[in-house]
Design a protein that fits this description.
- The chain has 527 residues and is α/β, with parallel strands linked by helices.
- It folds into 3 domains: 199 residues, FAD/NAD(P)-binding domain (3-Layer(bba) Sandwich); 133 residues, no CATH class; 140 residues.
- The protein contains 17 helices and 21 strands.
- The strands form 6 sheets. It has a 7-stranded mixed sheet, sandwiched between helices.
- Helix 1 links the parallel strand 1 and strand 2.
């Protein structure tokens, strides 16, 4: 037991936990981060998965990392380097046709015109409408949501939001309503007529979202993926040299410089509570760590249903937390390759190999994938996004070899008929390889080895409940002031001294650092 309690103990050394720790330590606080695994970084880590091959094991691409967090934590000074993709996306459609997106809007227009001149003409207007709403979201990212039932500061925050929205013209207000209430499919069908451009934008609506692009509310998930930036360019996507672990290692380096104590292999078993106030935590080995405040970077479901005794919580709170929706439909693979994929429609090596390669040629394909997964547990024709980061970063693979990240959907978090993910994992991995091979015939023969992570693996290894990469679905009832629950949308838990800093709080998932930043600000306010 510590002779003097820590000012704050943070459960979970993922990126948001490290961000929060850095800001608290900068205020002169004594801070300790407790990480269950043997490496910090949470789902943003780079690890060897096949002899000689390293990759970003879970999270795999950069855009949402907040520029203020990058500056405040001096991530570039701590070695972080992010490079932009040579083009944003590549969609192989069949043996002959494809759609390339980027690097400029004009380039994308030229590609879209192959399928519809009308859609090519409408593209700039669509982008303008989306950018207006994305700018609103960017303003909210580093703001604490007004807490329902809170005090004067929450009332003022609500008024600020209302004034910001009133500055939008009527067209933009209608767009905002569409994005929160409609499905991505319905919205895109109203804008465009050709399948490829709708597939390009519709893919963002199902990333990490166990849903059809025609599920109401999926339009917001599309928006969530476009408010980021890379090196000052809005909406761009990039790669961290050294993989996603380079981000969290830079954060950890800064944390240590600020005096943060980081403990790995330190699993928390229980949050200790006395008379409605947290007093610290107990580790799996029985060690008690005393702290004035406990800050959780975990999925809210893990925190409140596993680590806090139900007798210390309100019965309604526990009931609602049991209903916290976690489902991502995600199957993640890291693949070692002897050569680059040669796509039938575009076989030569080129910038498209450095893009986000989307295998999902239409909204209808994505809809069928979801229906299959709901019925059978696994899509017969799954959605696959493939990135080949070794085209931008030669530190990940031996010379002449490559690494591919496969982000695959849809699969059910729990398989029907009593089937086990431990039994089905490799069969589904082969399905994903076959899916890519249909578009790039040399792919299967180029596979030297792979690592496959089912939803269950993602939960066991990274604490992603149900494989949910966002720590909770981005549905309207789980956003903003309702993330993770009305009355607790301001990073404060229901016990005195208990706080939340993870992706289960506003603004949600992705490697943003924003929840950690915002939580630290609120924690310091309460000091």
């Amino acid at each position: 037991m510590n002779s003097k309690p820590y000012d704050a103990v943070i459960i979970g050394g993922g990126h948001n936990g490290l961000v929060c720790a850095c800001y608290l330590a900068a205020a002169g606080w004594k801070v300790r981060v407790l990480e269950r695994r043997g490496i910090v970084g949470g789902a943003a880590v780079t690890e060897t998965f096949h002899p000689g091959f390293r990759n970003s094991v879970a999270s795999y691409t950069v855009s949402l990392l907040n520029p203020k967090v990058i500056r405040d934590l001096r991530l570039e000074e701590n070695g972080l380097r992010i490079v932009e993709r040579p083009m944003s996306n590549f969609l192989p459609l069949n043996d002959r046709e494809y759609l390339k997106a980027g690097p400029t809007e004009r380039d994308t227009q030229a590609e879209v015109a192959k399928f519809s001149k009308r859609d090519a003409e409408r593209l700039p207007e669509y982008n303008r409408h989306l950018d207006i709403i994305a700018d609103v979201l960017r303003e909210l990212v580093l703001e604490t949501p007004p807490n329902v039932g809170g005090g004067l500061s929450d009332v003022l925050a609500a008024l600020w939001l209302g004034n910001r929205l009133r500055r939008l013209d009527m067209s933009a207000r209608r767009d905002l309503l569409d994005l929160f209430a409609k499905s991505a499919g319905d919205m895109l069908d109203a804008w465009f007529e050709s399948a490829p451009i709708k597939a390009l934008f519709g893919f963002d609506s199902v990333v990490g979202n166990y849903a059809s692009p025609y599920t109401p509310g999926s339009a917001y998930v599309l928006l969530h993926h476009v408010f980021g930036e890379v090196n000052g360019r809005k909406g761009a996507w990039g790669h961290a040299i050294g993989g996603m672990g380079a981000i969290t290692q830079a954060m950890a380096s800064e944390a240590v410089k600020r005096g943060v104590e980081i403990s790995v292999n330190a699993e928390v078993r229980k949050v200790n509570v006395v008379n409605g106030r947290v007093t610290g935590v107990t580790l799996a080995d029985g060690t008690v760590v005393d702290a004035k405040r406990v800050v959780s970077n975990l999925n809210p479901k893990l925190l409140f249903l596993k680590l806090v005794d139900a007798s210390d919580l309100d019965e309604e709170f526990v009931r609602r937390m049991r209903g916290w929706k976690c489902a991502s439909g995600t199957f993640r693979m890291n693949v070692a390759l002897s050569e680059l994929p040669r796509f039938s429609c575009l076989p030569d090596e080129g910038p498209h190999h450095g893009a986000g390669i989307i295998i999902a040629p239409s909204l209808q394909y994505m809809d069928r994938a979801f229906i299959d997964a709901k019925r059978d547990g696994v899509s017969r024709e799954p959605i696959v996004e493939m990135l080949i980061p070794s085209t931008l970063d030669d530190s990940l693979a031996p010379p002449g070899r490559h690494v591919a990240s496969l982000f695959c959907q849809h699969v059910a978090p729990e398989l029907p008929d009593g089937r086990s993910w431990d039994e089905e994992r490799d069969r589904v991995a082969q399905l994903m390889i076959d899916t890519v091979t249909r578009y790039a015939p040399n792919f299967r023969d180029s596979v030297l080895g792979y690592e496959a992570l089912s939803p269950l693996d993602l939960e066991r290894r990274f604490g992603l409940v149900g494989g949910d990469i966002f720590h909770g679905a981005l549905s309207l009832d789980q956003l903003y002031s309702a993330r993770p629950m009305l009355g607790h949308g301001n990073y404060r838990g229901p016990l005195q001294g208990l706080y939340m800093c993870g992706s289960g709080t506003h603004p949600g998932g992705g490697v943003t650092g924003a929840p950690g930043h915002n939580a630290a600000r609120e924690i310091l306010k309460d000091a």
